Amino acid sequence: VQVRESGGGLVQPGGSLRLSCAASGFSFRIYSGSWYRQAPGKDRDLVAHIIKADSSTNYADSVKGRFTISMDNDKNTVDLQMNSLKPEDTAVYYCTINTNVGLRWGQGTQVTVSS
Questions:
Q1: Chain centre to alpha carbon of residue 51
Q2: 25 close to 113: Cβ distance less than 8 angstroms
Q3: SS in 3 state form for 16-75?
Q4: How far is CA 84 from CA 15, 63, 111, in A?
Q5: What gap in Å lies between CA 77 and CA 75, rounded to an integer?
Q6: What pairs with residue 79 in β-bridges?
Q7: For 13-38, how does the pLDDT look when each residue is reduced to its tens digit (9 = 90+)?
Q8: Which residues pair with 11 in a beta bridge?
């Protein structure tokens, strides 16, 4: 199973971006998906998590009300809609997908919030 992120880039404060994470491979089942982020010199932190079985979600306090995680079961994708972006949201964003063959990480996508 491979995981690939897309959708990062440069955005002004207050703007929006949508990150997408696609899982591909043979004969796998997705249990959950998450987005993490890592700013320079800081730890990699969990941003949002979604469970496929019941679509339940949880978010870091710093992004609640601004970010929304979603899963498309037909396309095997996990998206992160980011609104009202702040400079402190600048980081490399990583997707992880938990499957029946193990946890898979994407390569990361840069998000920069700056005027």
A1: 13
A2: no
A3: CEEEEEEEECCCCCEEEEEEEEECCCCCEEEEEEEECCCCCEEECCCCCCCEEEEEECCC
A4: 5, 10, 13
A5: 5
A6: 20, 70
A7: 999 999 999 998 877 889 999 999 99
A8: 113
36 burial via Cβ count (<10 Å: 0-12, 13-18, 19+)? buried
> Which phi and psi angles does 88 have, rounded to 5°?
-70, -5
Asked if 14 and 84 touch (Cβ cutoff 8 Å), the reply is yes
CA distance linking residue 13 with residue 73, whole number of Å: 32
pLDDT bracket for residue 114 (50, 70, 90) = very high
Which tens digits make up the pLDDT trace of 89-112? 999 999 999 999 999 999 999 999
- Residue 97 to residue 35: CA distance in whole angstroms: 9
